């Protein structure tokens, strides 16, 4: 039997997830596609995984599809002099990602790539998205982003969510992300400030309105 969290265990993010899951379960549709958008370090993966877990606890199957699976390979980024900017909008296969979401919207059987953060590479054919899956949760930086071709995605989501985290908190998380990969404090700070934080600022500056905006400060990365 599923035990509901209580008291301090029921964080702000958990309450957001529960409310969103209840809303999704109350909608009559053969498939709902949920976009979880936000800057790098805002907790999108955590939120998406918790939403999938919550739907599963209510007896509904869902699939999580990360936008990061569409990172261009490092060798191609190097050839295009883009490796230092990895994570920027033009370092993804944006057109391929839009095509995938259109296929998911059409309820086709599709297979999506995932992203291995420790190896810093995409893994092809890692995620099956069957036509009968009632909920597909997509998470990524540029899901609600006012720049072509990313802006084409806005009309494909049934529900869009943005995780809002102040820039100082994002900075701390992004530095910690590099520290967790055994970089020194100085190197981790350089990596975050040279690329990740500018990408976060770009995401925030060109954000399209979402159906829901949640406080993501308690969503851990």
Provide a short characterization of the protein structure:
By secondary structure, this protein is α/β, with parallel strands linked by helices. It is built from 6 helices and 7 strands; from the N terminus they run αβαβααββββααβ.
Please name the defining characteristics of this protein:
221 residues, Rossmann fold, five-stranded parallel sheet
Spell out the blueprint of helices and strands.
Blueprint: H1 12-25, E1 32-37, H2 44-57, E2 62-66, H3 74-79, H4 94-105, E3 110-116, E4 121-129, E5 135-140, E6 159-164, H5 167-179, H6 185-205, E7 212-215
Parallel strand pairs: 1-5, 1-6, 2-5, 6-7
Antiparallel strand pairs: 3-4
Helix pairs in contact: 1-2, 5-6
Pfam families: PRK
GO molecular function: ATP binding; pantothenate kinase activity
Protein name: Pantothenate kinase
Mean pLDDT: 90
Quickly name the level 1 CATH class: Alpha Beta
Low-pLDDT windows of residues: 1-10
DSSP helical segment count: 6
**Shape category:** globular
Strand content: 15-25%
Kindly give the count of domains.
Answer: 1
State the separation between the terminal residues, measured CA to CA. 28 Å
Helix content: 25-40%
CATH architecture: 3-Layer(aba) Sandwich
Order of strands across the main sheet: 2-5-1-6-7
Evaluate the radius of gyration. 17 Å
């Amino acid at each position: 039997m599923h035990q509901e969290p209580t008291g301090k265990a029921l964080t702000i993010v958990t309450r957001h997830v529960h409310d969103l899951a209840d809303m999704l379960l109350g909608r009559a549709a053969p498939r709902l596609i949920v976009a979880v958008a936000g800057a790098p370090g805002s907790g999108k993966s955590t939120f998406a995984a918790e939403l999938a877990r919550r739907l599963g606890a209510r007896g509904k199957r869902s699939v999580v599809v990360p936008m990061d699976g569409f990172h261009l390979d490092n060798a191609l980024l190097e050839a295009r002099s883009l490796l230092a900017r990895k994570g920027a909008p033009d370092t993804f296969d944006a057109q391929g990602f839009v095509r995938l979401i259109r296929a998911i919207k059409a309820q086709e059987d599709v297979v999506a790539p995932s992203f291995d953060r420790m190896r810093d590479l995409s893994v092809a054919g890692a995620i099956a998205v069957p036509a009968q899956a009632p909920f597909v949760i997509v998470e990524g930086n540029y899901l609600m982003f006012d720049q072509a071709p990313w802006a084409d995605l806005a009309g494909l989501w049934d529900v869009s969510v943005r995780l809002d985290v102040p820039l100082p908190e994002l900075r701390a998380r992004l530095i910690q992300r590099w520290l967790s990969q055994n970089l020194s404090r100085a190197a981790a700070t350089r990596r975050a400030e040279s690329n990740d934080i500018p990408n976060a600022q770009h995401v925030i500056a060109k954000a399209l309105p979402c159906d829901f905006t949640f406080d993501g400060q308690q969503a851990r990365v």
